Amino acid sequence: MDKKKNIIFIGIMGSGKTTIGKRIAKNLNYDFIDTDNEIEKITGMSISEIFKKEGEIRFRSEETHALKRIVNKTPVVISTGAGIVLKNQNREILKNLGTIIYLDADIDTIIERVSRNKKRPLLNVNNLRETVEKLIAERRELYLEIADIVIDTGLVRFENVVNIVEKEIKKNSLL
Ligand code: S3P
Q: Residues with Cβ within 6 A of ligand 1?
């Protein structure tokens, strides 16, 4: 298996992993996998239900199971849940799975994007900005630790982000 053929998107909620990932998969003619969707399919529960009924620890272990299953399906574009990097084991699997693209964005853009969607249990809070800032502070180093490529999606329009990602993928595959 040519592991480096897989493309993996990591980054905070609202950074564009799923939207950009789907488009890149289409353009490359690869299958697209979203780890949250995989977990919902396997458990038969929504992400919110898993957090509510089983707790975050169960969800984190489902993320590991989802990644282990993906190892056999390649080449794919993978969009990951923002907290997937918290477990050391997940970071190790991801590093061996393919080229990792960290999508970054400024806090205002993130807040604006996540406010549109209420499906994120960790963001059902009154102090949204403070919570997102805390999550970024806890996770940024972990994203940077495993990223092969870092792209800012904040002020850049969707089509331009797609172009930048495609250029970076080409550059990276020549290394
Ligand atoms: C989470 C991010 C979510 C989802 C779950 C937990 C997190 O994915 O996996 O709600 O820990 O930040 P997105 O990054 O797609 O929102």
A: 13, 36, 47, 81-83, 120-122
